[in-house]
Amino acid sequence: MIYHLSLQTVGWITGIFLILISLPGILKPGLVQDWAKRLPRSRVAGIALLSVGLAWSFWLLASMEMGEFSWFRKPLLILLPIAYVLTLRFVDEFLAVRALGILCLFAAEPLLDAAFFRYETSRLIITVLAYLLVIAGMIWVTMPYLLRDQIDWGSRNNTRWRFVHGAALLYGIVVLALAITLY
Fold it and tell me: Model pTM?
């Protein structure tokens, strides 16, 4: 266990996060669609998201138990900022999408960790979301142009856009309700 979060805490955080990211897409679809279409090629968003990924991975590497591989810690802590700078220098294409994929991969672990060894069937709501994040993260890191295509598909008409954001809002409400009542 790295994060030591309870399923209830993870449910609260996940539910609130899903609600907060889906509400603007429902309330102001035109504004959010314009922003979402610019996101994949946004250098500023790429630097910001990659910086969060660097901080998260640096913290993980500095604090996690590595057992017999603990001698790797110091070289990796030196290599992380170097890789960050090299990535900023040489990976211009879809940097924001790749960084978002990295964050999706990082975010899945606390969700799975909190649901581990829990017997409630409702824990699968969190587990399914974690595996969706893993799949999205792997796809966006390796094939970042697909997020652009996914955004174009979702924003082709307002009905589809509101349906996608409504589904995310509903999922967030369900997760939050489970965190309040069951976990």
Answer: 0.85
